[in-house]
Structures are given as C-alpha cells and as structure tokens.
UniProtKB/TrEMBL annotation:
Keyword Repressor: no
Organism: Kitasatospora albolonga
Top-level division of the source organism's lineage: Bacteria
Keyword Signal: yes
Protein name per UniProt: Ig-like domain repeat protein
Keyword field: Signal
Amino acid sequence: MRTRRISTATAFAVLFSSVVLVGGAASPAAADSSRILPAASVGDIVTDGLHQRVFVSDPASGKVVATDYSGKVVATFAALPGVRGLELSPDSTTLYAAVPGADAIVAIDTATLKEFARYDIGADTRPTHPALAGGKLWFGYGGDGGGGGNIGSLDLSGEEPVVTLDQAPDPNRLWNSAPLLASTPGAPTTLAAGTQDQSSSRIAVYDVASGTAAQTALQSTGSSYLQDLALTPDGQQIVVASSSPYHHQVFRTSDLAAGKSYPSTAYPNAVEIAPNGTVAAGVDGWYDPDVYIFPKGAAKAVRTYDFPNTGMHSGSDTLVPAALSWAPDGSRLFAVTVNSQNVRSLRVLTNTNKSVTSLKVNAPAKAPRAKKLTASGKVTATVAFPAGSKVTVVRTDIESPKGKSLGTKPLNANGTFSFTDTPPAGGKVTYRATYAAGATHTASTGADAVTVSRAATSLKLDRNKSLHAYNKNVTFTATLGKTHKNRVVELWADPFGADKPKKLVKKGKVNSKGKLSVKVNLKRDTTVTAVFAGDGRYAPKTVKSTAYAKVKVSLKLSKHYRTAKIGKTSYAYYNKKKNPDFTTTMTYYKGRAQRLSLQLNYQGKWYDTGQAYFPLGAKGKSVVMLEGPHDVGYKMRVRASYINNSSGDSVNSTTHTGWKYFIFTK
C-alpha cells in the first residue's frame, strides 16, 4: 500500500479529484419476394410452367439465365452473343433463343437444360424476336448494319430445318429495324408486329395460315418508342406499351382500330397477358407503382405493385423494359427490376388476381368501464366487395389477453362496418377486426385501442428515508388496498450504482391484511419498488421507498510509543520526531476516496486544521503519513469519512469513523 504524506505545517491539500465517465450504446402492394439476378442486361423473359423455371436473356453478357420459381439460378447458357428474344414451345419442352451475334436461333431442352440445336438464319440477319405461329417459328431480323428490318420464318416440321427470309417485303421500309413479334396459342395463325426505337410507332397484323406472312392490317399507333406488345389469348386485341402516351394502348386485331386503353401511368414499358386474359401493365416509374394488374377488359387496376428502393437514388427500383412474364397458371407474375447501382433482381409477385385491401378501426380514445361503446371501421379496396362480406372482431384486454371474439360484423356496400361492446375490464382494450382473404380480395387486419377507466387502489411501502448500518438485512413491507382479482405485488430492489441492476426480489400474493414483506441486504443506498400490475377494475400502482446504507469504515493510528488517557479520553503518544501513520479501511468502490479530517484543541475548544481526500487502494485501504515538524503538547484528533458524492461516488450515505486522539511529546 502506497503511503500518502501530509504536513502539519500547512493546511491539508486536496490530493485527488473524481472523474465521472458516462457511456452509451451507441399503400400499394410490394413485391412478394426477390433475388438478385446475375445479369448485366435483360432482353426477354419467359416462364416454363411444366418445369417451373424462368428464363432470362442477357444480351450484354451473351447468355441465358435459368432460375426456379424462387429466383434461384439453376443453369446458365453462355456463348450466345447478343441473345435477345425468347420463345417457349407449346409443350414447354424447348426454349428458342434468338442470337443476333451468331445469326442463329438456338434450341435448348428445358428438361435437361442443354442446348441441342443451333439454326443458322443467314449471314448478317441478326434475328432478335421469335414467335410461334402457324406451325413455324417466326422472327424479326435485320436493321443493324444489314439494312432494313424484316420478318423470317423457321420451319422445323420436316427432316431438315427450312429458313425463309423476306416474309414481309416492304418497299416503304416499314421496318427500319428488326420488328418485335407476338403470337398467342388462342389464335394460332395470327402474328402481330411492331416497330421499335422510333419516335412514331407502327404495328401490323399478319395471317400466316398459308405458311407466308400475309399482312391484314397496318396502323400508326400515335405513340413513340414502342417497348413491348402482346396479343390477348383469343387474338382479338393487341395491347401496346410505348413511352408515350401515358397508358397502355389497345387495338383491335382485325383492323387495328383503337379500343379502350388500360389506365396505367407515365412511361409504359412492358405488357404481359395471362392465359385467362389478365393484363400486367408495366411502367418505368420511380415514384409511382411499377406494375398494374387489370382483369380482362377492366377499366381499373385490381392491384398494383410498387418496387422498393435497393439503390442509392431517392426513387424505387424500376422495371426493365419488356421484363414481365406470367406463370402459365396465372399463380404468379415474374418481373425483372434494376436499381441505381445497375443491379438486377428477379421479383416474384403473387396473389395478382386479388384486390389489396386495407382495414382501419376507429374506437373512442377513452371510455368508462362496464358502459356500452360504439366503434366503427372501413375496409377499402379497388374492387367492390362481394355481397355478404364480413369482418371478424376480437377484443383483447387484461382479462382476455388471448382475445375474446365479438363475432362477425357485416360490411356495408362502401366497406364500412360498426359494432358495439361493453368492456368488462379496464385498462388498454384493443379491438381488432380482420377481413379474411377471398377469391377476389387479400386479407387485412386493423386495430384500435381504448383506454377504459379503472378505480384507484392504495399501495404503501415502509422504510422510506431510513438509514442503516452497512450490510444490514432490512425488512420492507408493502401494503395493498382493495382490488378486484389481482392480489399480487412485486418487490424490486435497485441498489445505487450503474453496476448493480434492478432485481425482482419477491413476487407473491399479499396476506389477509394486504401485506407482503421481503428482507433486503443493504450494502448501498437502495430504492425498493412495490408494483401492483392492476386488474380488470383497478388501475396499476407503483410506490418507491429509498433506504440509505452507510459504508464500513475504520481508522487505525500507528507508530506511537504508548497509549494513555487524558481525562476520560484515550490518546496515542508520539515522539515529536516520529511521523504518525493513519490507516483507513473502507468499503471499496471504483474511484472512491476517503476524507481525512484533522482538528487541534486550543484552550479547551477543537478547531479544524484541514481536511483532504485520499484515494482508496483496490483492497479499500488508504495510508496517510503526518509529517513534521510537530509541535509538542497540543491535543489533536483525526477521523476518516466517506462523504456522499464528494468521495467520488454517491452509492452510500455519508459515514464517519469516531475521532482518534493523539499528542506529541519531546
């Protein structure tokens, strides 16, 4: 133990100061699931319902990526330079991929996921967009360094493949690039085509029943920069997605007369039609929904999808042009999105045929217990609710924490509903209403809480402001007044100091007199808290009692040559050439210091000569030497103290040793 030195020739000096360290620790429906797609670009996307796979072409990387329905990559087909359009055979056994960089169309076995054929279309043809119709595989080609665009066919019905080019000769250069093609099994001899990358778009319809493409209709769409087109399952209409106008245009196939459009929003860039006629209309929208779902011929979307933002800009991820594909059974819609970091994701959208509902409950903020109250609510959706629709209402309170059913409540035509209830219990009462999912709508739940009044009860706790010796077991008693069902009280002890957390020291039912007691060992000032959690009729109550604990402290004088009494007081006698040691032993606490006080008796009265604080060692000891020169014949005394807050902490109550008396002689 290091010895500190002080002098009687000068006043005591404060030898340390304490430092306190404080530390701290520091709408529209969303896509249902997604996975990052390892693709640098996207040309086309098709879905194989037989094997439950999705195929995505990547022109920039020259590959086709195959995933399962969850978006997990199962195969990659490389060495396909510039691969763009994809087409699936009617039996889902073969995937055809147009590869302009190889002037070829590649056939891939969807069961084995192996390329099994590569059909040469001709030098500098650059085929891009395949479509099956009339027993042949048709494709748009040309336009990139090879002159104007045109339409060709690939006949695979014979022993050898037969390629026929220039199927849509056009002296007026209708196709200045490879036209985008579309077909549908419901109209097997109809082929639709459209210009891309032009400020003024045109579409055409061909009858391919004879094996050649006979144009039956041609029309300017009045739009610019065609992005995608699709035929309805019966082949009676073409739906077009162009950068403008800001809706998805519809044209009658027979004469390309304009029909009622699908009201999406700015910058349409994709369209895909399910076998049942449901239209998925996609747009390039940062701040608007990205995909709109329209039942066949509907004037209003049954559902929208707004993709989240996974990049760095303020808007959401955006839909890649022409990157929508239905599962053949209509159970899900696949979409490819891109963020500001050029990362692409395959998103799987489900429940596309159901209108998204939202439910709101409105209950009074406060209500008296055992009195009838009225609550209301509303279920909203873009599609009208079926007749007889209902919501289920459940009340949750302190006496029914798992909920008590209040039955079903009918929806009015506008989706509103109301109900009455008489809450038997007070406190927080929650009313939760649920609209169950059906054939046309998704499920939704809403809730609102009511603060129901409760009577006050009395709760008392003794020993407040009491002072106790160090390490004493002190009994605290809580007294609970009248309640309904709950007679349980919790007693918590929270010793002063951040290193001693609050602890539950007893929990139990009070006795017949409403009392519950616990013994707490006091080594520090301690706050004891009594807690009544409340019940259905009486409000919670908490009371606190702070009891104070002294430290354990002693002071020992050493190096004196004898002890004798002066009057009734015992003194330690020191030779004036000897320096006394004062050893203080005190309950240790990090950063704690003892205060040493010195007094001198002059003409029968004690006077302060000084005081100072000295840090405690790890074992709670502090040794201080009183250096000379020492005056002879004066009565002196010394004591050690812990001073709350001034001794470096505030976890105990101020405690003093008794005075120790000493005198110097010759």
